[in-house]
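Researcher: Here's my situation. A collaborator sent me these components and asked whether they could plausibly form a single complex. I don't have experimental data yet, so a predicted model of the whole assembly would be a useful starting point for our discussion.
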Amino acid sequence: MKTQVPLKNAKWIVEPGCVLLVAGGTADRASLMTFSWQTPVKTMDPCLVLLAVNRVRYTHELIRRNNELTINVPGRSLLKQTHLAGTVTGRKIDKFAYCGLTPVKANLVEPPLVAECAGHLECRVVDTHAVQSHDLLICEVVDASAESDFFDGAWIPERFQTLHYLHGKRYGLLTHCVEV
Amino acid sequence: MKTQVPLKNAKWIVEPGCVLLVAGGTADRASLMTFSWQTPVKTMDPCLVLLAVNRVRYTHELIRRNNELTINVPGRSLLKQTHLAGTVTGRKIDKFAYCGLTPVKANLVEPPLVAECAGHLECRVVDTHAVQSHDLLICEVVDASAESDFFDGAWIPERFQTLHYLHGKRYGLLTHCVEV
């Protein structure tokens, strides 16, 4: 069951450096992109996450219209859909439908969540810095939720394997947890 | 054996979002920090990597003296040393010695590499953006090398397991590669 994650714990949803599906737009017109160029930049009050987004991307254009986006965490079972979403632009197609993914209404922002994903951050862009072809979008997390069987304040790799981009068509799976 | 990695492939050393050891300073006075708030921001010509560094960190102070740093990738066998390096400041101790890690001369920058790590990026800070308590250091990669048994243009999880921070004392291991 998906449950709310306290905002002070929101950054742990992206902390492992996993591949994400980032959605922009509105209920009428949304798209998404496969993404792994992100990092937290502030843990809380509020939690800030940075996304380095190429300005040519269609999802970048959608995000800029309302300065809102959702971050969604796919796992091993969504490998094919996640890779597919990174190979085509949503400018002329409905990328959700094309990839077999389901948009659902977010709590506080206009862009949809990706229903099949195990964790979600709802974000508003509060600042932007340009670095050559990319915008560094500084995103305030306004809502967070995750599948409680898979996330207890951190991902549980024995139950849910995040994807980590290696190269080309190769992804790494986070399968084990070790404790110091 | 450690071999040079072409700069056009350098970003794949950090692309999976793994935990890093980032070193600053000189041969006479160096320190390092455990780190996972990074992302590539440009693939090549040159490759740029962003580090979001809290300005209170001693390694930040060292990096600011010469605007150079090294990024080093520890694996599973360095779990204890990597965690330890994240729990203490190097302001009053030699953190390399404290953690049982060995500084070795880099090819093109003043800060040392961490000998025990499997991959290395040598970087110069070319731009900085401030976000509240953190500096976004935009780093140009000027040299890259990796253990050729573990990295063939991407990490090989069956041979070398990167660490991914989960929470507290918990780290995830990237143990499997899946191909779409």
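Model: Some features of this prediction you could bring to your collaborator: Chain B touches chain A through 49 residues (CB under 8 Å). The radius of gyration of chain B is 15 Å.
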